[in-house]
Write a structure and sequence with these properties.
By secondary structure, the chain is an alpha+beta fold. Helix content is about 45%, strand content about 20%.
Length: about 750
């Protein structure tokens, strides 16, 4: 026996091995048969017996199938003589509806005793049981084959839909999600051209199938897209055109067209998903329409999640995903930049003209940004009135030029709310994307810092993040430190150090110290106070730190209150300007002091002059309350502000701490000496003690002492040391150790 496999393109392949029993049965029923062949409904042999495939039999079968297609009447087969000794019998096998399932061809040797060929009816009657069983077998196999083919098609449909679902997953790395999905749809449905057009989002994606050039696809799309969009906007439903020349697609194009709307909700049409098949291809059927409609819904879902509904720009997650994909290939060898945009004074517009005007300004700014986008740029609305742009393959100068063009575009924007013209401007920050662990996040942070600097410097301007610009660098340092600062508060990674304050005129005095705050990071490395205190003030963490300091000071001093009281010790605690502005801090401080029950002369509190003047009402109330409780209050950094003398008589302080800028320059500087002398005389006249800060050398100490300074504090007097060591020294050896620490700390 010889098995002939069905061709790959056969509509429903037949299992040749399953036909072997039927061939053997026919051989048993017709022992004289020399050639037996079973054919499928396309006329292809799928089973042959051990003999050769008879060319004559194959010819007869093909002629029979050709006659079958052209006849109205249907026959079961026929018999024809091949030569004087052989006859050919062809049996056509049909299902219950009369549809052709296949055929059986037999070449048999005739008996020498007969003068005539056996009639067809006789042979057919002889083989009827085998033919009926074979007919049922073929019908079953075709049914199974058709079902398998249907399942395969649906499997491919499902793969296409699942591929579209994965295209916008967070782990996807491609920046061409729609292009991937569209190409899969074109290949799966055997199309020549596929297009996705979303005008409001500036999305126009075109993909072509095998044998169609991208240029040809673009030309067809140019001719048809306006008509398809207009038809879809009008009817809001899918459209199929399986014949050329329909007016719906703008004239004769040699393609069958399927166009589905991409909808936002039930009414608004965002765009179209269109597919083009060559005229020789099969028509678009209902299954394909339903499949493309599902893909169009998927596109709408992606648009809703990846694009801001108000401005049409990317959302921040989508922006970061696409930018990361562009950065992934080789960030080290490429120049990329980001631009941070913050609309100026939008809250003023909202308050004066209404929120609807503010919303319109946001839309207008987004339009200006969109009009200036190039293929290598991405733009997103990352919060209410803030935007970010990714500029690929561009130098810092190029990105700055783009930002300036955007600023100019906003300046030329003519916007009138009712009858009132509205000035629209924005501040811009530009930064390079540098190689690192989180390059995009760090670049956006740097650009935001530069943008805030632009606001500080007058708004409506462009600032570039550069290492040489110390004010911008300080802002960036604050941003990077704020997380560390929050964790330090949560993990108790602060400590207190004490720096001695000693009398300069030889007067008797108990040991005095100013308490200074120190912080360590996660690696137990110390961070400069200037750095973390700047970040704390910028991000409103100073009140939380002040509360930590108050609690720690009180719990540390409480066990040693009696010996420290007998020594006459005093510790100065700093209070930040933000705590002065905090309505709840005064009550918190008073409650902690009452609960600790520490002697009042054991503590004094320091407020900077500038903070006190900025919060004069609350500062005066807090100072008076502390004085009523018996605590001393020092005005720190005195002389730095412009209104010192005006407010000095208002604030009931006990000590003036002279700003270090006057003290540090007193050697060889007559003006500084004159200023310091004037402050000392003023304090003496008002009955206030004076402390000179930054006494960093013996010559400075001598001059301050000569000018009448009462106390001094600085590195030449004593460096800060841990508070616990100071308390141990004071309480372990009473006054003796206290003196040593006060002089040498």
């Amino acid at each position: 026996m010889q098995i002939v496999e069905a061709l790959p393109d056969a509509p429903a392949p037949i299992s040749a091995t399953s036909l072997d029993p039927y061939g053997q049965l026919i051989k048993m029923l017709m022992p004289r048969a020399q050639s037996i062949a079973i054919y499928d409904r396309m006329g292809l042999p799928v089973w042959l017996n051990d003999g050769l495939d008879s060319p004559e039999l194959h010819r007869l079968l093909q002629e029979s199938l050709a006659q079958e297609l052209g006849r109205e009447s249907r026959r079961d087969g026929f018999t024809e003589p091949v030569d004087s000794d052989h006859s050919a019998h062809v049996f056509l096998l049909r299902d219950s509806d009369g549809a052709l399932l296949g055929a059986v061809g037999i070449v048999s040797r005739e008996s020498t005793q007969r003068a005539e060929t056996r009639p067809f009816s006789l042979v057919h009657g002889l083989l009827r049981p085998a033919l009926e069983c074979l007919t049922r077998e073929l019908a079953s196999q075709y049914s199974i084959g058709d079902l398998q083919r249907s399942l395969m098609v649906r499997d491919r449909d499902l793969e296409l839909l699942l591929g579209a679902t994965a295209a916008d997953a967070p782990t996807a790395e491609t920046t061409d999600d729609f292009g991937q999905m569209l190409q899969g749809c074109v290949d799966h449905l055997g199309c020549s051209i596929g297009a996705l057009i979303i005008p409001d989002k500036n999305i126009a994606v075109c993909r072509t199938g095998k044998g169609t050039s991208p240029r040809s696809g673009a030309e067809v799309l140019t001719r048809t897209h306006r008509h398809l969009l207009a038809w879809t906007q009008l009817h809001r439903q899918a459209m199929t055109s399986n014949r050329p020349g329909d007016e719906v697609h703008g004239g004769a194009v040699p393609y069958k067209i399927l166009s589905c709307p991409v909808m936002h909700g039930a009414q608004r049409v965002l765009g179209i998903l269109a597919l083009f098949k060559p005229m020789a291809a099969a028509d678009f059927d209902l299954r394909q329409v339903r499949l493309v409609e599902l893909l169009a819904r998927r596109v709408a879902y992606i648009l809703m999640n990846a694009y801001d509904p108000t401005t049409g720009l990317l959302t921040r997650p989508a922006f970061e995903k696409r930018a990361q994909a562009l950065l992934a290939p080789d960030i080290a060898s490429s120049n990329h930049c980001v631009i941070y945009v913050d609309i100026d004074r939008l809250h003023v517009l909202n308050e004066n003209l209404g929120m609807h005007v503010g919303d319109e300004v946001i839309v207008r700014v987004a339009d200006v940004i969109r009009r200036n986008l190039t293929p290598r740029m991405l733009a997103a609305r990352i919060s209410g009135d803030r935007f970010a742009l990714f500029v690929g393959d561009a130098s810092l100068d190029t990105a700055q030029t783009i930002a300036e063009n955007l600023r100019d575009g906003l300046e030329r924007l003519e916007f009138v709310a009712g009858t009132q013209p509205v000035d629209v401007s924005a501040s811009f920050g530009v930064a390079r994307v540098l190689e690192g662990k989180h390059p995009l996040s760090h670049a956006l942070a740097a650009a935001e810092i530069a943008c805030k600097a632009a606001k500080d410097r007058g708004r409506d301007r462009v600032e570039v993040y550069e290492e040489s610009d110390q004010s911008i660098v300080r802002r960036y340092t604050d941003v990077t430190l704020v997380g560390t600062l929050r964790r330090a508060l949560a993990q108790d990674r602060f400590r207190l150090e004490a720096q001695a304050i000693v009398p300069l005129n030889g007067a008797a005095s108990g040991p005095k110290y100013e308490l200074l705050l120190r912080m360590t990071d996660e690696a137990n490395e110390s961070i400069s106070p200037e750095k973390f205190l700047s970040a704390a003030e910028r991000y409103q963490l100073a009140p939380a730190i002040d509360r930590w300091v108050v609690r720690r000071v009180l719990t540390t001093l409480a066990p040693y209150a009696d010996p420290l009281r007998r020594l006459g010790a005093c510790f100065a605690v700093n209070i930040s300007g933000q705590s002065l502005g905090d309505q709840e801090f005064s009550a918190f401080l008073e409650g902690q002091l009452r609960e600790s029950a520490l002697p009042s002369h054991l503590l004094t509190f320091e407020l900077t002059e500038t903070a006190a003047v900025a919060n004069i009402v609350r500062a005066e109330a807090l100072i008076r309350r502390l004085r009523e409780l018996g605590f001393g209050v020092a005005l720190d950094d005195f002389g730095r502000g412009l209104s010192s003398l005006t407010y000095l008589k208002t604030l009931p302080v006990t000590t003036l701490k002279i700003d270090g800028s006057f003290v540090r320059d007193v050697v060889g500087d007559d003006r500084s000496q004159a200023m310091l002398s004037a402050i000392v005389r003023l304090a003496q006249a008002m009955g206030l003690a004076t402390v000179a800060e930054c006494v960093e050398s013996d010559p400075i100490r001598d001059i301050v002492q000569r000018l009448g300074g009462e106390f001094g504090q600085g590195f030449s007097i004593g460096r800060p040391i841990p508070l616990e060591r100071v308390i141990g020294g004071l309480t372990g050896d009473k006054l003796g150790s206290g003196k040593v620490i006060a002089q040498t700390a």
